[in-house]
Amino acid sequence: MLGEAGNYLRAWDGYCHLQARDQTQSNMNRYHLRVSGLMALLAIPLLLAAQRTYSFGLGGGTSYYYGDLTEGLNPKLLRPAGTLSASVYLMPTLSLRLGLSHGSLGAADSLASDPTRQKRNLHFRSPLTEGSAVFVWHVFRDRRFGRSFLKKPHLSPYLFGGVAIFRFRPEAQYEGQWHALQPLGTEGQNIPGSALLPYSLTQMSLPFGLGVEMRFAPQLGLRAEVGYRHTFTDYLDDVSTEYPETEALAATGMSMAALLSNRSEGIFPAGTKRGNPGAKDSYFFLTTGLVFYVSPFQR
Q1: CB contact at 8 A, 254 and 185
Q2: Which residues partner with 83 through β-bridges?
Q3: Model confidence over 144-163: pLDDT tens digits?
Q4: pTM beyond cutoff 0.85
Q5: How many whole angstroms separate alpha carbon 45 and alpha carbon 10?
């Protein structure tokens, strides 16, 4: 009886051992399968990238502000700007472009033809630096996509759209000196109990526009582009809502805030409309420059 029990226990132990070994082997197989699958997924972008063509751009042009201190288009508001870009071509008619642009914005009521705007007498200037990521749709198909730019169309119109992050810093001049406006809270942001909060100097925009590339050498071309930026702020110019109480503004300890908030010499009292909060500010880039095409291999 004891011998039979011992045989049974040894058989059960052997069975459990085989099951554990099979389970371990199964787990190892699943582990190797997962690792292999992960490596394959990681390799796909590398394999695709090896088939891609790339380009780099360098250009210059102008930036332009549109907001509460403009009326229509005014060439006097054009400011110099520059841009750098790097593109990877994902499909024969689609590329992804990363860009870095720098320019400046500015406007003044003194340039307006409307007497009411002239009496408001506000102005500003601001540097602007933007980083963007946009998809570019090329109208004409690249017939040798992924191999070379040698057969790329010599004339290639395109449309683009994406997202951008930009940094700005509006300033105004008083008695020959320029003062940063956002820290002053010129619309009462620093007044205790104010419903307005200080606005951020880092904002998001949605860039979109059109352009054309003209290839005049195997790996060199010319690009011309106009791009509009839809922003989500009304404070590119530090002007948006109403005039605050001058005394309350001066009581914040920033005397310059009161001086730069209302420059109408008392024509517009507190509570009067200073800007239009229902319309966000925007800006443009109009640039031209060189494009350098880079292919992983030539055929």
Answers
A1: yes
A2: 59, 101
A3: 655 555 556 678 899 999 99
A4: no
A5: 53
